[in-house]
Every structure is written in C-alpha cells, then in structure tokens.
Specification:
This protein is α+β, with helices and mostly antiparallel strands. The chain is about 50% helix and about 10% strand.
C-alpha cells in the first residue's frame, strides 16, 4: 500500500492485445515455414540459416526493425514486442539471426546514435538492419556477459584493424560486423578485404558460431569514440531478451511432454497419470510460469528504460537458463525411446537450451552480477 504522495511502482507483465496479435502472426508464419522436419533437414546442410524465413520475418513482417525508431526506418516498437517474437522463435528453434541482428547489433548501434562522429553512418546502418537488407553481428564471443570484459582488436596508425575474435554468433551470415577497438567502435563489411570469417563446429547448429580474423581490414570512421557503452547496451539487451527465447524453449518442451504423456500408455493407463510423473510435470509447469514472469519483467524494464534493467536482465538469465535446460532434459527423458532419436526434434531444444545457458553469460555469472548490483558481493 502506497503512502501519501507515493506512486505505485507495480508492473503490468500481462500480454497486451497488440502483443497477442503479434504472437499469433509470428506463430502462423513459423507453423507454415519452420516445421521441425525442415529445421532438422537444414542443419545437416552447409546453410543452417533459413534465408527465406528471415526475409519473411525481417522484410515482409518488419520484425527486424521493431526496436528501431520510425524516423530511422523502423517500427518504433518496444522490447516487449521483441520479446514476444523471441518467445515464438524459441518455440520453433528457428534458424534465423534475430537475436544477433535485430536485438544485439541494433541495440549496440542505438547506443551510438548520439555520437556526432558517426551519427550519419549509424543512422544508415540502423535503416539497413531495420528493413532486412543487411544482417548485423556484434563481434564479441557469444559467451560474453554484459558486465564482463569483451574482446577488442588493435587499430594501427593507418586505420587498419588487426585481431581475432572467436565464437561470434551468426557471424557467418552477417553482412556487417560491429568491431570494438581500443579507440572506438567500427563497422566492417564481412566480405571486405582483410576480413576472414571461419565457421566452427557449434553445439547448437541452429545458431552457428564463427571466428573472425581481421588482418589489415579498413576501419572507416568510428561509430562511437568509446565502444564500452554501446557494446554493453547491446549485450544487456541481448541477455534480457534471450530469457524470452529460453522461455519459448521451455514452454514448447512442457507442452509437448504433457501431450505425449497423455497419449502414451503403459499397463493400460496413460503414463501421465502416474503420480511421480504428475509431480515432475507440475514442478516444471511452476518453473515455466516463474520463468515467464522473470522474462517479461526483463523486457518491460528495457521497454521503460528502467534504472533496474541491468538487474532485471541478470535475474532473468539466472533463472531462465536452468529452467530451459531442465525442461529440455525432462522432455528428452519423458518421451522415452523416441526422444533419443535424431528424427524427433527434442534434441534441437536441448542443444538450444544448453547453448543459451552459456550465451551472454552463464547463470552463475549473472548471479555474481546480481550480488554486485545489490551490494551483496562476497567478502
């Protein structure tokens, strides 16, 4: 209860009508164009990304520009809408670079927008990302947490960039790389001279990693004179909204497992009627509900530019990461023998959950961040 002169700080985490409509539209597209059979077939090829699906989502539906202001060619929406999109992409383990380009790279550029040195180039890049003409990737290892040190390359006196950055998510399909150097943030074309992008074996084949080698690549004008602020903004937004993707993974695993245990019979009874399985699924349902609250809170904190957005992002990651892994592990076990086969999609969700669990900081790293943010660091 608020006292005299106090304002309620309650947050509405329920989905708005607009968000529900967006969810329905995205789910319809994914149902038609991103079946599990299609994803399984694609990851066995040299083209793990679905470029046609990305074109539909980014260009035709305008989802790549949700976080970009309208004056820069975007939709001018909020992180809450972007979170809904990521929930659905997580439910489908969709092989598209939405998190890398439409969230992390976009937020990094938005962090540069007020810098007068590279303002025109920043606006141009944001417009290209928003309309889907280009895919962007922040050139830092995917495991980098928002508050952790991040990879920087060396810029020589002649303006050339030199260095190597390992395990960058979606770098193999990026058109533009945002590279942090010691004296600023630079945009480098992925096919420019002096740039080598080498795919590496990834645990999650729907979000492949690649190493970037810069050997005298031209830097051009700086997007920002200090890379620290923009890069951390991008990583923080990525970590906060990654929780929504993890929520989508957990929700699919729970829904499919409940349905399977109702249909599968042993001793003339649905296995889902066994008391021990009821308890396991009930626990998983409760974890998923709590994960939804944490993920929604993180997205809302970003959408409202709350001062507590760093704390909300770390809370969401610390909770949602293990929930997604637990949900995928339970789905694999409770599907029995069929769950162990390559043809069943549950292994895609387990791999995505495991990869996301270390992406943008592990749960342990985020718990450490929470302790620092609230002043409860170890003695």
């Amino acid at each position: 209860m608020e006292g005299p002169g106090q304002v309620s700080t309650s947050v509405d985490l329920l989905y708005s009508e607009t968000e529900d409509e967006l969810r329905s539209a995205v789910r319809d597209v994914l149902t038609d164009h991103c079946t599990t059979a299609a994803v399984l077939a694609r990851i066995e090829t040299d083209e793990p990304h679905d470029r046609e699906l990305w074109k539909t989502l980014a260009t035709e539906m305008g989802l790549a520009g949700l976080l970009v202001p309208e004056k820069l060619g975007g939709q001018g929406a909020t992180h809450r809408e972007a979170a809904v999109v990521l929930e659905e992409l997580g439910r489908a383990v969709a092989p598209v670079p939405y998190l890398s380009s439409a969230v992390i790279a976009t937020e990094t550029l938005l962090g540069c927008a007020t810098d007068q040195r590279g303002g025109t180039q920043v606006a141009s890049l944001l417009e290209e990302l928003a309309n889907g003409r280009s895919v962007g990737a922040l050139a830092v290892p995917f495991v980098t947490a928002p508050r952790a040190p991040f990879a920087r390359v060396r810029r020589s006196a002649d303006g050339r960039l030199h260095g190597r950055i390992a395990a960058v998510a979606d770098a193999a399909v990026a058109d533009v790389l945002l590279v942090a150097a010691e004296d600023g943030l630079y945009a480098v074309a992925a096919d420019a001279e002096g740039v080598t992008v080498t795919p590496r074996t990834s645990f999650d084949l729907t979000r492949p990693l690649a190493d970037i080698e810069l050997d005298g690549a031209a830097s051009g004008p700086a997007l920002a004179s200090d890379a620290d602020g923009p890069v951390r903004r991008g990583l923080r937004a990525g970590a906060a909204l990654l929780a929504s993707e993890q929520l989508g993974v957990a929700d699919w695993c729970l829904t499919e497992t409940v349905a399977y245990t109702r249909d599968r019979h042993q001793f003339n009874r649905p296995v889902g009627s066994f008391q021990s399985l009821k308890h396991r699924l009930a626990d998983l349902w409760l974890e998923t509900v709590n994960a939804r609250a944490a993920a929604r809170n993180a997205a809302d904190a970003l959408a409202t530019s709350s001062e507590e957005s760093p704390l909300a992002a770390s809370l969401a990651q610390a909770y949602c990461s293990p929930v997604a892994v637990h949900a995928a592990e339970e789905a694999l076990q409770l599907h029995g023998g069929i769950g162990m086969t390559w043809e069943h999609p549950v292994h895609l969700y387990l791999k995505r959950a495991k990869a996301d669990a270390v992406g943008l900081g592990s749960a342990g790293r985020h718990r450490e961040a929470i302790a620092e943010l609230v002043g409860l660091g170890a003695p």
